[in-house]
């Protein structure tokens, strides 16, 4: 064996060996590292707590969309507060909330979604749960805001639904 292979084997936990000849290896996993588990195919091991690449990618994408969506909602709220004539109000809409009030709602929700997205990018586990709740609140707020800004509200609702899906399924993975 070359010195490169020996170094790689020492980092990975050694070359694969049968479970009966494992010696100091963990009998249940077939690996010398307790955080790895043997999947039974050619002695390869995978990290138990890692997660699959698509799940990790969807979580990172959801976090990035949370940051962007939070900024969008923040600035939309700011626009509603500063210049409320930008949005058209309907006289017979069933939910009568002033545009300035909608502005404060979107401003607050946008700031919270942005903060949760940044914390999710930084790897905070609590941000996943908070992100799902905030995406749900954002989707409901944009649903109620449809008469004022219909196309934009539907786009943000679709993004929020994707964020909820990605955060809810991101932690689940199965070995190959």
Number of E-state strands: 2
Q: Which regions contain 5 or more consecutive residues with pLDDT less than 50?
A: 8-12, 19-29, 45-49
Helical percentage: 55-70%
Radius of gyration: 24 Å
What's the number of helices? Answer: 5
Q: What is the topology, as strand order, of the major beta sheet?
A: 1-2
Shape: elongated
Q: On the 0-100 scale, what is the average pLDDT? A: 74
- Percentage of residues in DSSP E strands: under 5%
The count of domains is: 2
What are the secondary-structure elements, in order, as H or E? Answer: HEEHHHH
Largest beta sheet, briefly?
2 strands, antiparallel
**Distance between the terminal alpha carbons, to the nearest Å?**
28 Å
Estimated structural class: mainly alpha
Explain this structure:
- The structure is a single chain.
- The chain is mostly helical and 176 residues long.
- The chain has two domains: 3-47, no CATH class; 53-169.
- The chain is built from five helices and two strands.
- A two-stranded antiparallel ribbon has the order 1-2.
- It is elongated.
- Residues 8-12, 19-29 and 45-49 have low confidence and may be disordered.
